[in-house]
Structures are given as structure tokens and as C-alpha cells.
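Pinned message: reference record for Pectinesterase
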Amino acid sequence: MNASESARPSAARGHRQSALRARPSGGRTAAAVTALVVGGLAAGWPVTQAAAATGCAVTYTTSDWAGGFSASVTIQNLGDAVNGWTLGFRFPDSGQAVTSGWSATWSQSGQDVTARNLDWNAAIPTGGSVSVGFNGAWSGSNPKPAAFTLNGVTCTGSTGTASPSVSPSASPSASPSASPTASPTASPTVSPSASPSASPSASPSASPTTGTPTVAADGTGRYRTVQAAIDAVPTGNASRKVITIKPGTYREIVTIPANKPYITLQGLGSSPRDVVIVNNHNADVYGTFNSATAFVNGHDAALTNLTISNDYVENSTTVGQQAVALNLNADRSVLSNVRLLGDQDTFLVNASARAYMSGSYVEGTVDFIFGDGTIVIDNSDIYEKRSTGAPITAARTDPAKTYGFLIYRSRITGATANTTQLGRPWGPSAQVLYRESTLSSTIKTSQPWTDMSGNSWKNARFFEYKNTGAGAGVNSNRPQMSDAQAANYTPQRYLAGSDGWRPIG
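Predicted structure (C-alpha cells):
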């Protein structure tokens, strides 16, 4: 660490302390419902599409590796609003099985598979959709199901081939050469659970075939900006409001206020790259917390298939300058197939937040996942883009809070080898667990945790459990959880809280 780097912890802390003071306060039957089973369009995976009964069409996509695969399902409603849905299909081969799922309650009986809504995505308005997915195992062969049912109505028809589109998983254009390995298309042979960017909740590959997008920068939607659509949601709304966003770049500051819960922001592109919400505020002018491009404060918020970016660029005179992409205060929030892009302090998870992130991508330089909230980052890609490396996390978990950050079944990569730390303690009782994840050679194997502003990493609650990859290992500087401890540090335990919230199966 050079002189400027060693000085950074105190400077970073100073920005955050000032920012804390400035924190913002935060008539149709079921046959008229369409199920779109999507997942790897953007990754160029083979796609089979079925033209089905009136009002219903199905696309099923997988990403396969030896003995395993991932799939993603998006249910789009072209009829009247529904509240509660069940999707069913039958595996053609007896060796196929769902091993884990996300954003739905998954069950299997023999070869029959059922996915049922969770509380946060039960309602599907006209023209809206929800997205779910699963990891699976196969033996013998892995053919695609030929028929699906949605709320008991069968959707069948002739099959065709859809054209693949551009992969969402490459690194952002701001640093095209920075993350060749960071993409969610990590080699499936490394970790079957890592299901390459078959992002757990990919959105439809195109805009709804009927209806108007809520937001379109070109004027073809009801609103030209995302914020205008949020502003139109009634205060104190008691049901989910899905704001669909047409592909485009939206340079604005977006705030979902605390008095507007149950809002979904959903990109309508073929990948999260197609919808970009971006700005360039920075801590020097706005304070760390106020520098965010997006503030999500209303509980039960959901973000899917879009990018949130802070494109403020550090230079030789501004190294260590925080610039937040997403400031998350919302409890029970779900982020799926989302890209969060920034430099230092990309993603802030505040104390009021419990969040589940899946099938997503986060990149930055220093402390780019930080805060005192609780989050599970599942089946996602985390990329350290600075050539000299830096800590990925900076947690400030309250001592009375059992759970802080869980990085689960994810892939950690970086621009250079042996330079990146797993984290450092912004608060003395910071709690971070990297569990069953693939750590690339970017991790500093001899010393993957480091101190921060007088807080010793040795006093923090830092652990690893069953990680793999070139950056994994065990030594005196790498505390490992026992099996007995790990039984209490599952994604479900992190997220349950006092209300039993269960966004994953």
C-alpha cells in the first residue's frame, strides 16, 4: 500500500461521517396471462420458443454444463391484473432436478415442477411481469420442457429459435479491458452453483407486446423520466406498482421515497445493459450518502434487469473520492439481474435495509459494498477493477445485529492477481461472510482482510466457509466457519428478521 492508500481509510471515514449527518430521510381468464421463460438470451444461449394458446407464449432457456444447468423464468401478464400465480411444467428426463431456486417457491414431484409466487411478486399488472429462476442438475440428457401451465392453463405450440443478443456480462464500457473474467459468464466448470449469468431473474427479452412502457426517454412511454413515473405513484400505495422502462440511458437522480412502498423498476431490454440510470455526483460536493444516483427508501422495492451507475471518474487528484451508485434504505428489497457500477463506494446498504441480490454484477475500486445493513448477495459477480486492488467490503454492522453481509455462491474477480482484500471493518463489529463462493487469483491469499480507521479486522466478525478457486485458502489470517456455525448463517437466516421474510425458497 502506498502513502496515499494508507491515508485513505481516515479520509474515507471522514466523508462518511459528514455524510451521515446529511443522510436523506429517507374480465380475463388465466388464459390471458403470458409466461416467458427466459434467462440466457443475452448470453447467446440456445433458445426454444413455443407459440401457445391465445394470450400465452413460452420461451425456455438454459445454460448447461456437465451435470448441471441454470434457467430463468419471467411471467408476463397481457391480460387483466392477477394477484397470485403458479407456473408448472414437466421435465422430459427423469434425471433432471431443481436443486435451488430464487424469487419463487420451487417444488418438484417426480418430473413435475411447480413455481409459486412469493409475497413481493404475487401481483402482476397488465403488461407487467415478474422474474424467477433456478439451478438444476441433470443426468443422461437435459432436454427442454415442451409444455407449461400458468394458473392451470396449458401453453403449448410450435417451436422456433430466437436470435441471441449481446451478452450483458462484459465489463462496462468505461473500462472495456478491465473485467474480462468478471462477467457473470464465469466458467461453469469452476462452480456449478455459480450458474453463469443465467441471472436468477432475467427480464423479458423485449418490451411487452401490448401496452405502453411506463418510461421511455424517446417519448413513447407515459413518462420520459424514471422519477416522473415514481412521482405519479400514490403516496402510501398498498399494492405493487411496476414501472417498466424502455431501453435507453436516463441521466437523472432517482428516489423511491419511504412513503411509496412496493415499487418495481423493471428494464425492458434484452439485458441489464439496455436500461442505464446514471449520474456523476460525488462526495466532495454532496457528501458520500447524498452522492448516489439512486435512493431506494420505500420498503418491498424491487429492481430488475437494469443498470445503476455513478460515472464520476477518479483521477490523480481525486483518488479516494466516494461516489455512490445505489443508496439502499428499503427493507425487504430484492435486486435481480442488476448491474451496479462505480469506483469507490458503489453500493451502500444502510441499517434499515434487508436485501436479497441475485444474478447481478457489482464493480468498484475501494469499499464498494459498504454500510450497516443486512444483505445476501447470491449467485452474482463482484469485480475489483483497480489494478492495485483494494478492499471489496466495508461493513459497519451494529454489535447487537447478528447478520451483516453474506456473499453466497458468487464469483469474485479482479483486474490483477494477489491485490484484492475481502474487506475491512468500517465499524469494529463488522460482520461479513464469504460462503461457498469462487475466489479468483485476485484475492490476496496471505492477508485477505485488513484494518480500517483504528478498527482491527481481527476483532470484526469476518469469516469464510467452503470457498473455492485460486484465491481461496486457509491460514491464520483467514478465519473459517465451522459446519455447526454455518448452519446458522444461511441466506434464510440472514433475511428472516422478526417477520419471517423469505424471498428465496
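Pinned by admin. Summary line: The two ends are 43 Å apart (CA to CA).
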